[in-house]
Design brief:
single chain, alpha/beta, 6-stranded mixed sheet, 18 helices, globular
């Protein structure tokens, strides 16, 4: 199968069913970010044509320890999953920065950053070679994020976890949305995640005490209870020298997770009213100098992680405060335990990372064990919460720790945020997500930046958006 045919399959997959949104990283890496379920407009006549399926050598292999390979190749885009395996998988031994050992098996970490779609491009090209690859070169595990999970769900390159011997009972305690997002159109679960990514509003407690006279979460929530109140509170913060957010992009996922319609309806691009609310509110905040248009992950955006940055809040899931807010840097707000947490104007999720097994892996038994240990073992799940400040994908573990008065987050000043996350995870609604979300969300923010900065009128910015999306998805109209 050549690259053109594979890309055609991927394009069809993007139009396939995502029976799933987020939180969101989780695990996430720089805005792949995040996020994502009904078949309404996303079902293609044939998600993966029969004629395009790989030869039998790429089909799922029956787990058999005697036939296990000697090298486990793991494809990912950053160090997060590697750290989870290194720190929490029993028996893992680090050899060097890109190699480890599990028993007699050598583990090779193939890490390609997300920048300019490099990770997906490398993964796609390597999956194409899987059929004829030498045993030691075959991909065994690869990671996907919420925003593009669908791209791999409805292709024959991703094994159903049932083919590894993982049952519905094994994953019964995982949050439903984390299973929906990687369920294929034929109902097969194609991946598992150790994370849940419900979001919250993280606020600068010292700023809250200075401006509002209190940093109590219930009182702060009154100041950000809905978007009208949020915008009004920005005036109060501005008078005291604070930006309410670092960037207009900080709130985007909160609005986009609360739309009432899909990006594409009957092949036509649709801009939901709540996205236009984001544009209106963001323009007002930007014009008053109450936030910026900085790109997520940029140096300008990150200034608010420190007191001198004078930023009141950020929106994010659990992985965000540990992975993205400079909590390990001396002098940062997180390092001093200076962030508070509250619900914010609307619930949302951002991101997530899923562990997928590549069809053709010669290490099915080991792949299965890694999946089960890191996503279903309650003891390991609790270790991840305590050691990494992550919110894990196990209801009993999270509910127990939410009620555990001995657990607290240092970054959040010794509070226990887990009950809030638990409620958020149960409430995630993915009914308005589609296979076009990643491209549409990216291009909408890119286009509106021109409007916020005064380089285009609103109509001109909308035309820039439509043009960019049609170039990315030629089958659509507007």
């Amino acid at each position: 199968m050549n690259m053109k045919k594979f890309k055609n399959i991927i394009a069809l997959s993007l139009s396939g069913i995502l029976t799933t949104a987020a939180f969101a990283g989780c695990g996430s890496s720089p805005e792949p970010s995040a996020a994502p379920a009904s078949a309404e407009e996303t079902t293609a006549p044939e998600a993966v044509p029969e004629a395009e399926a790989p030869e039998a050598s790429v089909e799922a292999e029956t787990p058999n320890e005697s036939s296990e390979g000697s090298v486990l190749n793991i494809y990912c885009w950053n160090e997060e999953f590697k750290s989870r395996v290194t720190d929490h998988y029993p028996g893992y031994e680090a050899v060097d920065g890109t190699t480890g050992k599990i028993g007699d098996v050598t583990v090779r970490w193939q890490i390609t950053p997300n920048d300019d779609n490099a990770y997906q491009n490398n993964l796609d090209e390597t999956l194409l070679k899987q059929e004829n690859a030498a045993a030691d070169d075959k991909i065994d595990i690869f990671l996907v994020e919420a925003d593009y999970a669908l791209k791999y769900v409805d292709t024959p390159y991703t094994m159903a976890v049932s083919d590894l011997g993982i049952t519905d009972t094994d994953v019964a305690n995982q949050y439903q949305y984390t299973k929906d997002i990687v369920t294929s159109s034929d109902g097969s679960l194609k991946g598992v995640s150790w994370q849940g990514c419900p979001g919250a509003l993280f606020y600068n407690r010292e700023a809250a005490k200075e401006v509002f006279g209190t940093d109590d979460p219930a009182e702060v929530q009154k100041k950000v209870a809905d978007w009208d109140t949020f915008v009004a509170t920005a005036d109060e913060l501005k008078a005291a020298g604070y930006s309410i957010m670092s960037s207009v992009n900080d709130s985007y996922r909160v609005y986009s997770n609360n739309v009432t319609s899909k990006w594409v309806i009957d092949g036509k691009i649709n801009i939901d009213e709540n996205l236009m609310n984001w544009v209106e509110d963001s323009k007002a905040l930007f014009d008053k100098g109450q936030t910026s248009s900085a790109e997520l992950w940029s140096d300008d955006w990150s200034k608010g992680f420190y007191p001198e940055g004078k930023v009141f809040c950020y929106f994010g899931p659990a992985w965000f405060i540990n992975f993205s807010m400079a909590a390990d840097q001396e002098g940062s707000i997180g390092n001093m335990g200076g962030w508070g947490i509250t619900e914010g104007p609307q619930g949302f999720y951002w991101g997530g990372t899923w562990i997928c097994a590549a069809a053709g892996t010669d290490n099915p038994t080991l792949v299965k064990d890694i999946m089960l240990k890191l996503t279903t073992d309650e003891t390991i799940m609790k270790e991840i919460v305590i050691d990494d400040d992550d919110f894990v994908n196990n209801k009993p573990a999270m509910e127990a720790m939410a009620a555990d008065t001995s657990y607290s987050s240092k970054i959040l000043g010794g509070t226990n945020p887990l009950a809030m996350y638990c409620a958020g995870a149960e409430a995630i609604d993915l009914s308005n997500l589609s296979g076009y979300d990643q491209g549409c969300n990216e291009e909408f923010q890119n286009a509106m930046k021109n409007y916020f900065e005064g380089n285009a009128t609103l109509d001109e910015a909308l035309n820039l958006f439509y043009t960019a999306v049609i170039e990315k998805y030629p089958e659509l109209t507007y």
